[in-house]
Amino acid sequence: MVPDDALIWKALADSTRRQLLDMLRNEGQTTGALCVQFAPQLSRFAIMKHLQVLEEAQLVLVRQRGREKWHYLNAVPLRHIYERWVGQFASHWATSLVQLKRTAEQPQVEEKPIMETVQIEQEVMIAAEPERVFEAMTDGVNSWWAHGFQSPHSTVHLEPQAGGRFYEDFGTGRGSAYFATVTYCDRGKKLCLMGPMGMSGPVVGTMTFDLEPDGSGTRVRLSHQIMGAVDEEIRHGYTSGWQELLGEHLRRFVEEGKNFRDA
What we know:
Elements: H1 5-13, H2 15-23, E1 29-30, H3 31-36, H4 44-56, E2 60-65, E3 68-73, H5 76-85, H6 88-105, E4 114-126, H7 130-138, E5 155-158, E6 165-169, E7 176-186, E8 190-195, E9 203-214, E10 217-230, H8 232-256
Antiparallel strand pairs: 1-3, 2-3, 4-10, 5-6, 6-7, 7-8, 8-9, 9-10
């Protein structure tokens, strides 16, 4: 379940709203911080109205922290538009051409990762009750987790209990890879994990999945904090990776019974 396409296109049609999304692409920002960047051309009230339109289209997620409201980019609706309007072969060529453009324009300077904190906030609506979504996320993880080290030949497992492992099994006698450890589990409501999630170097991540009933479906909220040596490539890769996993593979597995391995 995603917002009506008309809401997404309406939100993207305005240049100010597109600029706001650009500002949120790398990290969340407070309402005040966003407003300052448009002053004095636009008032705080005008920016808040634009943010409301983006929130209604689910392109922006709002999280309250004390007295401040933080805004985060939620690219899952963009993924929906991408899937609908870009075919499989067009996607391949478009991706290749964009990558060629970036490579040609990028200065040949090696960037070293610096120690920092990255927060990824995403949200997706799935047409099923929370218990069913939670079961698919955990017991059925092998059917939608498409980012394994040796996927699709290996199997992925998530043990839904405190201390449970989230790992990839390469097969008998071939080894395995550790993703994270479950730190909190409330079936049908909340799942928390901590671990590197495939990142190398001095990096640790914490992931929280909140499941809330919403009408006839479930709203899945992801909060992923990454702390350590994180560069722009890692930030972009994990943001787009979660978009694909939650907005495409998990949703299709729950709503349509489609296993990404059968594609």
